[in-house]
Amino acid sequence: MYHVEIIPNTSSTATPGWTYVRDKGFDPAKAAIAPSLGRKRGIRDTGRTELSSRQTNAIVRHLAELDRENPNNAPLVPVPARQRDPSRADASRGTRTKTTSNVRRVLQSQKTFRNYLDDEEAALAQAASTPGGPGASQRLPLNKITKPSSSRRSSTPAKTPRPEPSRSKKDIPLPSSSRNPSDNTIPSESQPQPQIRQDAEQSDSSLITSQYDSDPLLKSYIPPAPSERLMHTLLSEPPLTYNASRAGSPITGKSTRRFCCLCGYWGKIRCRRCHQRTCGGMKCYKTHEESRCGAIYV
Amino acid sequence: MGTAKPRPPGKNSVAHVQPLPDKTFIIDNGAYTMKAGYAPDFPPPEDEDKGLSACTTIPNAIAKSRGARIYVGAQIDTNVTDWNQMLFRRPLEKGYTVNWEAQKEIWENSFFDEKTVRSKDLRLAEPEDTTLIFTEAPNALPALQKNADEIIMEEWGFGGYLRCVGPSLNAWNEVQSIFEDPVLQQQPGFPVSPTECLLVVDSGYSHTTVTPVYKGQPIQRGIRRLDLGGKHLTNYLKELVSLRQYNMLDETYIMNDVKQSVCFVSNDFGRDLERTWEGNCTRGQPDLEEGVVVDYVLPDPNRGKKGFMRPRDPLLGSKKKQAILSGASAERISEDVLVLGNERFTVPEILFTPSDIGMKSAGIPDMILQSLSVLPTGLHPAFLANILVVGGNSLLPGFMERLETELRQNASAECVVRVRRPKDPIRFAWLGASRLATNKEELRKVAITRQEYQEYGSAWTGRKFSGAL
Asked: Which domain of life is it from (chain B) (predicted)?
């Protein structure tokens, strides 16, 4: 491990302990005008685009804090003991046989969700290393799943067979009662259900035709509803694993918003020592400087 | 995990199998509350309120007061007077039933033990003559599913049993009227059937999930989860208030009440933030902050008073001083007030922008689009036009509007976007299950009987419920 020390230069002695930073957070118009910093971004403003490991740890700790049921060092609430009145116990159990070993194991297990998740991950890792293992057929391992990434890919995954365009109408049985007169008059793209829309397309003859109907620029593209067979394949897929079903990183590229660590307003200025944000009001900055600033609070 | 393939006798024995019991009991086992009750008989009531009259909401927790008294399940709602420093133990972690020791105690207390069961409608006198529908969150761990199957079938021995993904049950409800579609006339005597395409957003206590449901079945590849729910909102609010005003870190329950009465989802985050900033208010624009900043009077257990919200009173401090000087009523002097400004909307905001607390995850609108992106494009219009939001967080004012606005902005322009919430978003999955239960033929296809369980065991049960058989 090497150690980086920032040596103060003589010119900075007169400056106050805070700096103005460009607030990229809340004004998309301004953000668009500001030129991108390009390749040298990492040199010019370090620690803002990429989080340092210390900040990452702080976030992880904070999230764990939010996930907590009770305050930090609260003892576990015990399950009240049931009075084991033999005559009553018999009556309440009815025709049940005595406790099986499975039940005993489940009831005595003090495993937490974390333990179960670790077990599953280990089992999946093992199943992946030994192809054709028992777990492989049940659930898709992490690396085999088409997970949406931050860059927008094609909206249809490659694995899915494309729905064949020339499908007959009887692919999806349509309940006859869903046919109502309004379907014939409204243009087809406003119809929510693809099946109903199909129906409307068939009775299109009642619409006024014009020469622009086949104009490729004006034509609205409506993807055909998938076939019954494709739907059957989709429905019979095994569930994703717990970790694979977590939402991916955001698609819409908004930059992170920063808030004042005290009052919650926009974090317009940044403390030079600990890089925490405060709002422009000097009250918050003063409080921060006097009581909260310092590496231990970061 | 056995290496054996599904055994063929499963098919052969169907002929002489015993039928499912007629009575169906449904437990929608949520992390915060469980929703339970018997399903109605065949023609399910048309009216939603009538259908829900059989459903009871019971806290799914064991609580311990600061006087070290223990309360189980429904006792929390009725017997507790002092909420200060209440501790909770919940059998569910991250939305999944993990601790069966605690869960068994709560179930025994609420359904099986005739001394503590609240009403006749909740009593499970003969489990062997009852079919149980038990819900779980999507993407549950197989080990936890196995635990649930074993304890339900071996400890209580239900005559019939179905474990299914909770959000998918919503599709069995009559959702056309919620979306203002022409209601398909149900032929009298015809069994209830699920709606065709429904995208269920379930924002609950432990997490928020998106489940595309096609004809009552979840499309597994499209299920996505954001690990933020009501618990995180409460804890975040607690943290902010403790940092800025009083230390409320031990007062989870009280802060949950504060959250429910003051929090809202902002539809113009920037404007609302300006309106609550002190810096703007001191410049002589007192009217700016009006409407957003409120006072919350904390509950006073000694006087038996509950907490409540009231408009901001900037002169509260001086009024209090005056009251002390003039020896006015002690009530006014002793009350404790939390002033809530931007906490009211920055807290629920994390559901839409998790990056505000540093979480590298998509918010709910983005998550819906991510879920759709792995489905065939032909299904997008149908799902976007039928988005149903359930779960307690959907009751936050502004939630629905915000979700619809953001989806409209990001979704393809050719698709109609409709986001709706049922009248009772918390018990809607239960209601769907109760309608499924009236369709005996469908239930018979997916559920198992006690005999089948005894014959084939829990591994087979797991495969059956995952649809592999």
From this structure: Eukaryota
